[in-house]
Structures are given as C-alpha cells and as structure tokens.
Design brief:
This protein has 238 residues and is an alpha/beta fold. It has eight helices and nine strands.
Amino acid sequence: MNHEQMVIELNHIEFRWKPTKPLILAIEKFSIQQGARVFIKGASGSGKSTLLSLLGGVLSPQQGEIKVLGKVINKMGGASRDAFRADHIGFIFQMFNLIPYLSILENVTLPLHFSRRRRERVQQQSSLQQEASRLLAHLGLEGAILHQPVTELSVGQQQRVAAARALIGSPEIIIADEPTSSLDADTRAAFIELLINECNAAGNTLVFVSHDSSLETFFDHRLSLADINMTRHTLSSL
C-alpha cells in the first residue's frame, strides 16, 4: 500500500492516563487510507473516545507515533497541534458542543475563525454565511429555522448544525464521536446518509465511532476497537 495515500497511521501506540494506571490503548499498527469511510465500534469505556482524541492531537501517547496527513502530530508542541487540528480535522461530538449565545450560522462558521486555511477555501467559492447556509440546506436545515436560537432546536437539528460546523471549509478528516446516540433509528439513518453524502462530495475521510453495531452497514470499512487494541493488527485494506 502506498503510504502517501494514508491520512492516518499509528505505530506502536501505548496510552494510559497515569504512569501507575493500566494501559487504555495498545495499538501496534493501524492505518486509514484517504477517502475511507470507517466505522469503529466498541462498548462504553472501551477507549473509543480516547482513540479519537489521540487521532486529533487532543491527547498524546506515552509511546509510539501518530502520523496524520504525513505529520507526526504527537511530536508537535501544543499550539502547533491545535493549529493543525483546526486546519485539517472536523469534529462532531456526542454532545454537539454548540455555543448557546451564537446563532446557527455563527455556530457553523466558528471553525473558520480559527483556521485561515479553511476560511480561504470557503472564500474562493462564496461568503462564509452562504457556505454555512448551503451545508445546512444539504443537511435538511433551511428557511426560517436558521433564525432560531440553537437552544430551541431539536436534538436531531442540533446534530445537523454540529455536522455542518465540522464539514465547513472541507477539512481532510471528519471525526465523529457517538453523534447519533441520542437519536431514534430513523433519524440516525437519515443523518448518517446525509453525512456520508457530504463527505463523498468533498472527498473527506470519515472516522465514525459508536457502540451501535446496527450502523455498520452504512460504512465501507468496519471493525471493532478490540480488533486493534492490545493486538498486532494493521488495516492494510483501508
């Protein structure tokens, strides 16, 4: 496999919260190819969110190398990791983390204030507000609802705002951490289809983690975290 096509590569990773605590993650090798749609399942407390935090440079392992888009992010300083994450990674959180005092459009465009790279990508085609409105419309939110405070939106609507915020400016990688856990089955399916369609259109790589194995069929590549944690395993097919 051509490693230039890999957007994520983990080698000999070990992570624990404290030196005296047991290992949370021990991953020998794990890689994801550009443009892949990857579903990672695992029970609550199995280390899924910890893995995503490592991939995004929020946490650093005690041992090993995490390479994202060809850069070894765990060797960067904190400010450099923050800037790299803002430029290249869009997060969709389980609790969405919307800002209640900002409008819907302001919530969506928020990442563009932290990333010149993503802001310039948008401005090459349209204004920030126009691009935010376009993404929201593709995700099923448009019209008068855009003038409502985010606190008045349903859970499903808030989720779509959070997805648009992650997608704006076309970051190369979208990381989704249990974003459908509060939704019913029909709403979950509709959201994932919309999310994957947007990722396909922009060429994003999508890494989606959940404990819900019923979502696996939407994704090209599926695995259990137990398949790579504490074992020697490489996703050479991704």
